[in-house]
Prior knowledge:
Oligomer: single chain
Radius of gyration: 31 Å
Number of strands: 9
CATH topology of the largest domain: Rossmann fold
Largest sheet: 7 strands, mixed
Amino acid sequence: MRMNEQRDIESPSQNSEPPSNNAWKNRITGIWNHTTAKLIQTLPVEQVAQTVVKWFSVSEDRVKEILETVRAELPTTEALLIGKPQAGKSSIVRGLTGVSAEIVGQGFRPHTQNTKRYDYPSSDLPLLVFTDTVGLGDVNQDTQVIIQELIGDLKQKSRGARVLILTVKINDFATDTLRQIAQQLRKQYPDIPCLLAVTCLHEVYPDAKADHPAYPPDFEEIQRSFAAMQPTFAGICDRAVLIDFTLEEDGYNPVFYGLEAFRDALAELLPEAESRAIHQLLDEEAGEKIGNLYRDVGRRYILSFAIAAAALAAVPLPLATMPVLTSLQVSMVGLLGQLYGQKLTRSQAGGVVSAIAGGFLAQAIGRELVKFIPGFGSVIAASWAAAYTVALGEGACVYFGDLMGGKKPDPQKIQSAMKEAFQSAKERFKEVK
C-alpha cells in the first residue's frame, strides 16, 4: 500500500510536463514582491532615508566653519605679481601650481580696478594667493592710482606670509614705472621681501632655434643684461633670479627653466612654514599632497556617511536598503564636490558615483544578496556598506582633485584609491553590528 501511495505521489512528476521557467519565475517574483511589500510596510524605508540624509546633511554655515578652521592653520603665501603684460607673471603662477594656462586664466578674478586675484587651489583653502597688476606700463594708466590700490591691498590683514615678485623681460630696460611702484611699496612695507624675476631668456639666445642650456645660462648677452639690470633695483629687491617659463608648444625643454632656482630664491624670503609649503608644492608628489590636504577635510564627512551606511545596511531587508544607501552616497559625493569647488546637482552627483564606481557596482549587488545567509549575512553587509562608502568617498576625492588641478580624471588612479581604501576600511568596520 505504501509503495502504491509512493508511486501515486511520484507519478504526477513523472507523467506531467514540467512547469516552464517563466511560470516558476513569475511565481517566485510574486511571492517576493508580496513579502517585500509587507516588510516595507513595517519598515518605512523612505522615511528612514529622508531622516538619515537630514542627519548627515551639513549646512553651509557648518561647512564654512570647518573650512575656516582649517584655513587658519594653512601656511598661505600671498604673492603680489608686478610687471608689464607678457612679462611672465601668469607663467610664474603655472610654474608654482602646475596647472594649465587655461586654468590659470580662468582662475583669476577682478580684485580692484587695476588688479586681479587667483587663490590656489581654492578660495576656501588657499596655499597660494596671487595678485596680478593689470595694464602696468600703459601710458593711459595713472601710476599713483595703481600704487594706492596696492598699498590699500597690503593694509588688509593677512594670515600668511607676503612677498613681492617683480617680473622683467631680459631685453626690457624701460623699467622706470616698475621701479617707482616697487620703491614706494617697499618704503611703506619694508618687512615684505621682494624678488626680481628676469624672464623670457630665450628671446636673446644667440641661436633662435637653440634649446635651453644647462642652468644657469652662460650666454654672454644674458649675463650682460642681467648684470646691468640688477643695479636698477638695488635696495628694492632682496634677491634676483633668471627664469624662462614657456608653453609646451614653444618647444623649449624644460618648460619651466630655472624653476628650482626660483623656488629656492623665493623660499629664502619666506618664513619656515611657508617655505616648506613652496618646496612641497614643487615636489614630485605635489599633486598628491594637495589632494591629501582636501581629503583630510573630506574624511570628516566620509566617516559620518560610512557609519550611517553601515547602520542602514544592517537592516535584514535585501535590496530594500539600496535606495537609502544610494541616496546617502550621492549626498556624500555632492558634499565632497562642494569641498573641491564643484557645484553639483543631485543628478550630477549621481552621475559621478556611476562614473567612478566601476566594478564595485556588481559587488554592491553581491553585498545585498549576502543578506539571504541566515544569522550573519546582515553583519557582513553592514561592514561592507561602510567600507564601500569610504572607498567611494576616497575615489571621489581623487576624481575632484584631478578636476581641480586641470587634469582629466584617471580611472586607474581612482580604482586604485578605492581598492586600497576599501581593504583598509573593511578591517576598521569588521566589528560593525
